[in-house]
Amino acid sequence: MRRLLDGLYWCSGWLAGICMVAVLFFVVLTIVSRYFGFVAPGADSYAGYATAGAGFMALASTLKHGEHIRVTLLLGVLKGKLHHALEAVVLALATVIAGFLAWYSVRLVWQSLEIGDVSMGLDATPMWIPQLFMAAGTIVFFIAFCDELVLQLLGRRVDPRGKDAHHE
Description:
Helices cover about 75% and strands about 0% of the residues. By secondary structure, it is mostly helical. The protein has one domain (about 1-155). Helix 2 (about 45-55) packs parallel to helix 6 (about 130-155). The longest helix has about 35 residues, at about 80-115.
């Protein structure tokens, strides 16, 4: 199960990277199209969709690598069982919030698909397509928080940044 979850986070991170390359591609395409006088309909929109996709797809990988901003002022002072308990409470709250985010992201995709929502640009992209990246990213983010919470409750959670990384 551990390898499956780590593979999921790895794939999510790679998809975020691919989205960043797509942003570069669409920005360069927009610049080149203006320079040479041809139209690249929707390139600006697609760059925006890819930017959002990159942000959402990177959430879980960033969490699992300990790169999210954390305020550890109180946690850094606490030791032992109190530290463990507070960390579990915080992870439980974050899991609930990530669950709501995932739920409403999936719901948005479903509603966009149901009503036939399209972008306002010339490309008329069905909105559920770019929204899929948001939904997938938030689902993997929720899974990552569930994973962190279970590891914390079992006493097997490790800080990926090291023990002395409590300086945010």
